């Protein structure tokens, strides 16, 4: 189910501004890859190129190759809509659909895509909510509005919504940055479980979190404001946090930079 | 710990405050003073004592508050009282308009009046009713709404969700221009095009076309604003689930903003319901019931009011009918407004458990 991602020579632009430059890396299936780096170095931009969400931004443009197993996401004739069904995404701020109930939010992806069997829907919703560790908290209020949940519950609702469509890859952009330590822990545990089934990429500003949840860590940096961000190195998380091969990585991780 | 045994002292956060009823007392005093002065000076206009009372109220609020509470609170009170005075100035004409319309309108407004047409009753005789005018107004407004809502909403969707570059700029420009078209010009346009060039007759539908021209820009503008209020995150959330853009618009963007869009449509309807000029030019008017809006002249409420007033040579019966029709029109617009609020509240994105 999970798929491998191979990126080579990737550049992403906003209009004429190049936000990330010449990134190449491989992301292993059934593992968690963490992206770390200073603000503005293009982590979110890079993440969004992996499911063709970057081009939704006005002026957004991508060059390079992203291979999902053996298909180039930017190849000719590739439909971005199908790409996004394979590569799901969870955003920094929880964004449940305000007009929909908890149940409808989880069912949204399937319903809006129209490819589901009616009889299976409630099973899928239950399975996804259980998968997102939210079932026990919401099983009595499935028909209540999703925006009535707490921030942490909303974020797990968004995760349930994303995994309900059974993507191969799950991208998470700072999924815990608005959450308290307990909700954060719940989501980190969840990531640990989800990696059995999905390829997971997570952006985080929290070093401990990267160290706790990820198998591989990629460090991004930019030489100056207004310059494009670059991949400095990617390695096993243990190695990045104990003995990185680039000095800049060590400076960033230990809090010495500038 | 505390050694203080004195009578409770005022803390530094607590200041002298005027009792709650002070503004009311000052207002009553100002009104009394205004009435007194105008009685003494022999002025008989309500506006004069009203304005005097307003000025006294603002000055007295400042004076009293400055003496008791200090200068900062006094300024605060002046600002508050100015807001109240402005509010009253805005509300007084509105209330008096409704008051006069109700007072004069109820004279002949009854079931008979609402369910009968003028028929053969001449404008100077008593009797008759507005059934034909209500019917005409409802049909003309309904046709205009059916035409302009889909076009207007789709235009707004294009502008907000797809529009980039030249075409979108041009559309925005024309919508702006259309917003400024006087209703008589819209009427003349349809008159010269539909009735003079194409040689079609006067009909409710001709009036509906002019009303559409007036309604369309209002709907485009209000829908555009509502769509812009939908957070981009929701669109992205939907797109990231692999939902195509058009379904995202249909199932996520529109439901989120449907309350506001409906309100805008209702307000646009309320606005064109009272239009007189284009109806006068294109629908022509009739004293008989004409249920077919596509053929032959019809009546409509605003035109009925105008004709009763203009053609009756000062007959009291006609004036009474004009006021009753005006009251009906106002009631209709108010009901639409209330319905708009109701729908906006009912459809608003839900929060809470
Ligand atoms: N919509 C946009 N239009 C133009 N430039 C943008 C846009 N979004 C981001 N950028 C620019 O692209 C660069 C990378 O931004 P990005 O959001 O990817 O950084 P980030 O690493 O995710 O930062 P953070 O850690 O603060 O989230 C920044 O210089 C930013 O100013
Ligand atoms: Mg970011």
Verbal overview:
The complex is a heterodimer of chains A (258) and B (353). Chain A has 258 residues and is α/β, with parallel strands linked by helices. Chain A has a domain at 5-93 and 171-254: Rossmann fold (3-Layer(aba) Sandwich), CATH 3.40.50. Chain A contains 10 helices and 10 strands. In chain A, helix 3 (102-113) packs across helix 4, helix 3 runs parallel beside helix 6 and helix 4 (118-131) crosses helix 6. The relative contact order of chain A is 0.19. With 353 residues, chain B is mainly alpha-helical. Chain B folds into 2 domains: 2-104, no CATH class; 131-346, MetI-like (MetI-like fold, Orthogonal Bundle), CATH 1.10.3720. The structure holds adenosine-5'-triphosphate and magnesium ion. Residues 43-44, 173 of chain A line the site of magnesium ion.
CATH class of the largest domain in chain B: Mainly Alpha
Rg of chain B, please?
28 Å
Q: Quaternary arrangement of the chains shown?
A: heterodimer
Report the CATH C-level class of the domain at 5-93 and 171-254 in chain A. Alpha Beta
Question: Structural class, judged by helices and strands of chain A?
Answer: alpha/beta
Count of strand segments of chain A: 10
Organism (chain A): Streptomyces apricus
Keywords (chain A): ATP-binding, Nucleotide-binding, Translocase, Transport
InterPro entries (chain A): AAA+_ATPase, ABC_transporter-like_ATP-bd, ABC_transporter-like_CS, P-loop_NTPase, PstB-like
Domain AAA+ ATPase (chain A): 29-223
């Amino acid at each position: 189910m999970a798929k491998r991602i191979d990126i080579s020579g990737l550049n992403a632009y906003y209009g004429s501004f190049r936000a990330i430059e010449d990134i190449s890396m491989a992301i292993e299936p059934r593992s968690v890859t963490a992206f770390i780096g200073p603000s503005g170095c293009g982590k979110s931009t890079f993440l969004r190129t992996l499911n063709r969400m970057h081009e939704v931004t006005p002026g957004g443009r991508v060059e390079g190759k992203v291979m999902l197993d053996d298909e180039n996401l930017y190849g000719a004739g590739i439909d971005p809509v199908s790409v996004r069904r394979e590569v799901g995404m969870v955003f920094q701020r929880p964004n449940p659909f305000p007009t929909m109930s908890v149940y409808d939010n989880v069912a949204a992806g399937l319903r809006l895509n129209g490819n589901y069997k009616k009889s299976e829907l409630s099973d899928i919703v239950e399975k996804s909510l259980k998968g997102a560790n939210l079932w026990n908290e919401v099983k009595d209020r499935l028909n209540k509005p999703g925006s009535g949940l707490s921030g942490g519950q909303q974020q797990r609702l968004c995760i349930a919504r994303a995994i309900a469509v059974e993507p191969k890859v799950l991208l998470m952009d700072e999924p815990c940055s608005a959450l308290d330590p307990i909700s954060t822990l719940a989501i980190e545990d969840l990531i640990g479980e989800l990696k059995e089934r999905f390829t997971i990429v997570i952006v985080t500003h929290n070093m401990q979190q990267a160290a706790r949840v990820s198998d591989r860590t990629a460090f991004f940096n930019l030489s100056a404001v207004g310059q494009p961000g670059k991949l400095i190195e990617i390695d096993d998380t243990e190695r990045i946090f104990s003995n990185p091969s680039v000095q800049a990585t060590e400076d960033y991780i230990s809090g010495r930079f500038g | 710990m505390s050694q203080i045994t004195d009578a409770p002292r005022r803390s530094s956060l607590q200041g002298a405050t005027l009792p709650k009823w002070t503004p009311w007392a000052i207002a009553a005093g100002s009104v009394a003073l205004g009435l007194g002065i105008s009685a003494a000076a022999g002025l008989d206009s309500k506006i004069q004592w009203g304005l005097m009372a307003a000025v006294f109220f603002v000055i007295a609020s400042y004076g009293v508050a400055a003496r008791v509470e200090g200068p900062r609170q006094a300024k605060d009170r002046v600002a508050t009282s100015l807001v109240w005075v402005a509010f009253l100035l805005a509300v007084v004409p509105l209330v008096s308009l409704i008051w006069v319309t109700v007072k004069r309108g109820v004279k002949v407004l009854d079931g008979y009046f609402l369910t009968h047409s003028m028929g053969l009753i001449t404008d100077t005789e008593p009797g008759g009713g507005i059934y034909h005018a209500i019917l005409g107004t409802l049909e003309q407004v309904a046709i205009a709404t059916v035409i302009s809502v889909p076009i207007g909403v789709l235009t707004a969707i294009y502008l907000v969700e797809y529009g980039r570059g030249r075409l979108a700029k041009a559309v925005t420009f024309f919508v702006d221009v259309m917003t400024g078209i006087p209703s008589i010009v819209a009427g003349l346009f349809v008159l010269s095009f539909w009735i003079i060039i194409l040689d079609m007759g006067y009909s409710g539908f001709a009036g509906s076309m002019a009303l559409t021209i007036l309604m369309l820009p209002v709907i485009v503008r209000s829908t555009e604003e509502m769509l812009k209020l939908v957070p981009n995150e929701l669109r992205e959330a939907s797109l990231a689930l692999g939902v195509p853009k058009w379904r995202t618009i249909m199932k996520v963007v529109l439901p989120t903003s449907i309350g506001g869009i409906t309100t805008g449509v209702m307000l646009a309807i309320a606005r064109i319901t009272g239009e007189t000029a284009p109806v006068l030019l294109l629908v022509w008017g009739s004293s008989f019931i004409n249920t077919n809006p596509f053929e032959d002249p019809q009546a409509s409420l605003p035109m009925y009011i105008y004709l009763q007033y203009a053609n009756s040579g000062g007959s009291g019966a006609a004036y009474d009918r004009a006021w009753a029709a005006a009251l009906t029109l106002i009631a209709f617009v108010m009901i639409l407004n209330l319905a708009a609020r109701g729908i906006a509240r009912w459809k608003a994105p839900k929060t809470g458990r």
